[in-house]
Write a structure and sequence with these properties.
By secondary structure, the chain is an all-alpha fold. It has one domain. Helix 1 crosses helix 2 and helix 2 crosses helix 4. The longest helix has 15 residues. The chain starts with a helix and ends in a 7-residue tail after the last helix. InterPro entries: Formate_DH_dsu. It comes from Chromobacterium rhizoryzae. This is Formate dehydrogenase.
Length: 78
Amino acid sequence: MRPQPLVKMANEIARFFENAQGDDAAAEVAQHLRRFWTPAMREGLLAHWRSAGAASGLAPLAARALACLEDSPGKAAR
């Protein structure tokens, strides 16, 4: 899957959760991605984020959620 639709969806999810308190917002977005996205979708977005960095098009909260996924060994693919 091309990264742009994934970026758009991740940013929409981040916008929905942006009112959560503090670091909880990033954790909520990460949890949503774990629950409702396929492993291929998560891995595709993570690969795009790793390679593009700040130019990925991800909202800051969406990027923090991906960092949460990366910080949880083995959980990004589940």
